[in-house]
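#struct-pred

JT: dropping the chains for the assembly here, can someone run the whole complex?
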Amino acid sequence: MTASSPAQPASPAKRETFSSRRLFILSAIGSAVGLGNIWRFPYIAYDNGGGAFLIPYLVALLTAGIPLLFLDYAVGHKFRGSAPLAYRRLHRAAEPLGWWQVLVCFVIAAYYAVIIAWSVMYTVFSFTEAWGDDAEGFFFGNFLSIAEAPGLGFEYVPSVFFPLLLTWAAVILIMVAGIRKGISRANAILLPLLMVMFLLLVVQSLFLPGAAEGLNAFFTPDWAALANPAVWAAAYGHIFFSLSVGYGIMVTYASYLKRRTDLTGSGMVVAFSNSGFEILAGIGVFAALGFMAQAAGTAVDEVVTQGIGLAFVAFPTIVSQAPFGAFMGVLFFGSLVFAGITSLISVLEVIVAAVQDKLGWGRVQASLVVSGLVAAVSLGLFPTATGLYLLDTSDAFVNSFGITLGALVTVLVLAWFLRKLPLLSAHLNRISTVKMRRTWMILVAGVVPLALIYMVSNEFISKITATYEGYPEWFVGIFGWGMAGALVVLALALTFIPWSHRSKAHHDPEYDAVVAEEEKEKAL
Amino acid sequence: MTPIAIIMMIIAILTVWGGLALALLNLKRHPEDEGALPEERAPEL
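RK: done, full complex below.
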């Protein structure tokens, strides 16, 4: 910026960057490794063929997950903007895609923080094993004070409200500090800590009696499963959610990378680290479940569960029964907290970056206003007696009709309507070590949309034929279908709000220089 | 553990962590080239 001529209007602040490739990789892994790796993957793998699941899983990773990851990287890195600005620079008509992704992130951030807050409390509870001998009753009754029926209530539960407030305070501090001092630093500290804690947890689980039975259940292959299309769909579905692709996160993070960065080489490390962590989680979780089954005198398949049931019912039970259980509890719930925070900040960054770009605001102002707004919604709606129902419904619908449908529309628009894949492929290959040429384009334009169409239609059919979880129709109508539809309408509305005159969409000497330089390179 | 479960565990670890090792090796062989292009705007622009 030092070279800008004094005659020009005041140049906007320079775009922040990750100071090194290593910090970008750490942050991208921090984003990809989240609660899903710990509490979702082990069950999905077990339920879809055990050891045989490895085949559809690797196929999905290589043919859809990694190609889509690189699509996000290419858009963010080439067009150097938040999701809405990057898509707008790609093509005016693509801007709503960016806003849709921003809004999806808003919904996710609001409820994701709640699970982190629970985990914070459970880390503390582990010391005294506060749940006694009824982990299930304790979680739904004593801790969440859950209401009998779904609805929108405002009966606040202090034991959730205050840890949630604390979680938001910590996250807002990270966001205000920016890319280098906030997000990079948080990931550089929390991610290694998560790895060490989780490794200790896995080792401890492996020494529990019954661990081998658990691993048998997890790894014994059911080859017949490979003939079942649902198993393949589960593999593609899991890979999409696990890698945090298709909803703006990787577009945003890649926009903070320096220009000459090996995108695909870095991305391979991110993708395989994420999978490596999942395999580790599968081993740890199933060793622990094997112990739980042995202690209860049942078979492993009687105790297998996922999600909230695994983390807040099964694991507390294991902690109570295991030798050095309190230590194990702190490792497990602490891991959930760290894995959750590094993902939550990446989700929030999508919104913060978009607001910064649209309004021309500075880092501090944008991150305070955005995080404050999401925190207010999160604190207002979720730490209540009915919060769990709302969380469950918004999670299910934003996953199906926000992330998955959004990713499908984005891929179709980019590959088939705007035909931008050759341009993006050329960008990836300019610097990167792992080249993405025809095969990549075929995968992104063919395999990825086909897998997504299958998933979206499956979700649509299952959610239209029966009201979700048997919740009241008005409830699912408003907070499920209504919310998912509102995201699309709002995305279009946000597109029509003009960009501020201070916005980088109008005046961005840094980006103009990049474009000019690329033009020159092409002419040579 | 049963032999088949052990074999599948080893294959899973080898493919996924092996993939990670290869990815890291590839990155190491191509160190970040900081100075090759100006990060700042080219002076003539």
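JT: nice. The first helix of chain A runs from residue 21 to 32. Residues 150 and 389 of chain A are 6 Å apart (CA to CA).
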